[in-house]
Amino acid sequence: MKFKRGQVTIFIIIAIILVALVGIFFLVKDKIILDKMPVSIDPMYRDFLTCIEEDIVKVGIDVLESQAGYIEIPEFDPGSSYMPFSNHLDFLGNAVPYWYYVSGNNIQTEQVPSKRDMAEDLANFIEDRILDCSLEEYAEQGFYVVRGAPKADVSIKDNYVDVDLNMELGVIKGEDRIIINNHDLQVKSKLGKLYDSAKKIYDIEQDELFLEGYGVDTLRLYAPVDGVELTCSPMTWIGEEVFFELRQAIEANTLAIKSKGADFTLQEKENKYFVRDFGVDENVQFLTSMNWPYSIDVDPSDGSILMAKPVGNQPNLGILGFCYVPYHFVYNLKYPVMIQVYDGDEIFQFPVAIVISGNNPREPVAGVAMEIETPELCEYKNTFVGVNVYDNSLNYVDADISFECFGKKCDIGKTESGFLEADFPQCVNGYIRASAEGYKDARYLYSTTQEGYVDILMERLYEKEINLKVGGNDYLGDAIITFISEENSQTVVYPEQKSIELSEGQYEVEVYVYESSSLMLASSTSQQCVEVPNSGIGGLFGLTREKCFDIDLPEQLVSNALAGGGKQSYYILESELVSSNVIEIGVDKLPTPSSLEQLQNNYNLFEEKKLEIYFI
Hints:
With 616 residues, the protein is of the alpha+beta class. Helix content is 24%, strand content 41%. The chain folds into four domains: 17-74 and 114-186, no CATH class; 192-361, no CATH class; 392-458, no CATH class; 462-615, no CATH class.
């Protein structure tokens, strides 16, 4: 015990000596000569400046360049199912603030830092990290170091960064002592020039929306958008396959965009379509990824199927003499692009949100940091509502709860043991929506102008395999099977798809069976006449004349023709869905058409044919 007390006494004496030395130091600091660095202290001070430059300033510059000009990034603003963007892009595990994005409630936002903002961020970073240059090894060599409060001033130039650090640094080594108040550094960095080039590219994007332009071109090249095909059978596309191929193409084509720079002679050998002149000297790279936040929706669609129906083979349309399938699909795409400007080892990067609405680029942003004036429904949640969610057997269901009003959707929360108490935004005749895996979405009409409780019933979805029989035999050819209900319809492209998710309810079931055909429709010319206004004075008095046009109809091969099918109204009971694994559908076979008249007759017969539906 005496030995331990002795140790404590020694530490107390050392602490008193250190405090005394510090006090004496500041008492006599005005008498210390400042114009000459003692030889014994000079190595330590050089290491101190090196520490500031390498371990603090350059680290801060790296953070600014990798985080779109931010060290302290803006407060997180989440996205939504409507707009998948938050205000940060997760890039290799690092949050990089968007310079342009659309918030979850459809507000366009710009968050572009200025050089002054970056300089202030870096100055604060230096002040916060200056103690990291601890110089402990010199303390072990007999140096006594005293520091005052740091105050940094940073100026960002094209090819270097000026740092003026004002901080009293007192050093004592034996008989040598000095106080240094200002520590000036000039750190080589192209931060300023890279930022200027990045800002120039960003301004071009905001003015011209060239990235959206590439996106629209890719959409029209890799996805069905507009067109007409000469065929007598419906055209179908699997939505997931279309979206996957489109995302792959956008990723590859975005990476292919080049900047016209010093190496343009090499780029001339490539596709000039992807080469743009941004007026910058640095290299520029554009990145996007299928794994980043994405949103694609298309209208019209039938569940996961894109379908276009033929014109010309329906009853009473035989006068056309040929069949064709017109289609027009409207897409809305949202995805991020990371723009990187680099010179040597230095890379400045920032992401932007790409928005394509109705097959067209978004409207350019007018002004700086603009916001669209729209009511912020989700911001003001002030009406208490309790929500109970059950299935048809009154078992509790854990579901995601949202609220919809006038086209706006607010995420509310998730039920626990089938129950949720939460504040909702006020709205008259809005819908409380419940979504859960394995159940059909349910919604409840409710006015949140007063507090209350709501009970929502959800119908369970059952996945069933479909087995199609034509003329009593199993069929493995092409067919389109549709289950139509009041709320939605689902389509199966058979045999590529053989399963469907259904709930209890009334359905109109339609089956179209197609077989290969060699029916050739000969070319023909028909005449069509219309009434047009008379030329001259007669036209002023409403007089008209007949004008006729020749319409040339091309030769057409009908490669797939309707060869079976029918329709049936059927109420599916939940007990049938619970007790079965397969839905077996039987249809009658129709004659293989050898002429347009027979093809049209098949469509007439189709309207009269019924289906046999069994749950087994």
